[in-house]
Write a structure and sequence with these properties.
CATH architecture: 3-Layer(aba) Sandwich
Largest sheet: 3 strands, parallel
Distance between the termini: 31 Å
CATH class: Alpha Beta
Helix content: 25-40%
Radius of gyration: 14 Å
Strand content: 5-15%
CATH topology: Oxidized Rhodanese, domain 1
Strand order of the largest sheet: 2-1-3
Number of domains: 1
Oligomer: single chain
Structural class: alpha/beta
Order of helices and strands: HHEHEE
Length: about 90
């Protein structure tokens, strides 16, 4: 794996960990959040990508799935598809 791809992968993992941190965890980086209404308003836009990064257990046990979301395992980012930088990427981990 080349250095650029490795750094990119490490950055994505760090963002996922920060975004999915429990409320009791001290995190100094502010992660932008989106309301359900904002998400619904953007779902059909071509420049908008929703990635479901819940753990496999949480994903499998949930009755709630976002239509059109791409499922990626947060524990195995090396197999993630490359996502275009010109699109809005939303990580769903609730």
């Amino acid at each position: 794996m080349n250095t650029g791809k490795l750094l990119s992968t490490a950055f994505c993992v760090a963002l996922i960990i920060i975004a999915c941190a429990s409320p009791g965890t001290a995190v100094s980086l502010e992660v932008p959040k989106m309301t359900k209404e904002e998400l619904k308003a953007n779902l059909n836009k071509e420049d908008f990508v929703v990635i479901d990064v819940r753990t496999p257990k949480d994903y499998d046990n949930s009755g709630q799935k976002i239509s059109g979301a791409i499922r990626e395992n947060p524990m195995d980012v090396r197999y993630w598809e490359p996502y275009p930088k010109d699109k809005t990427i939303v990580l769903y981990c609730a």
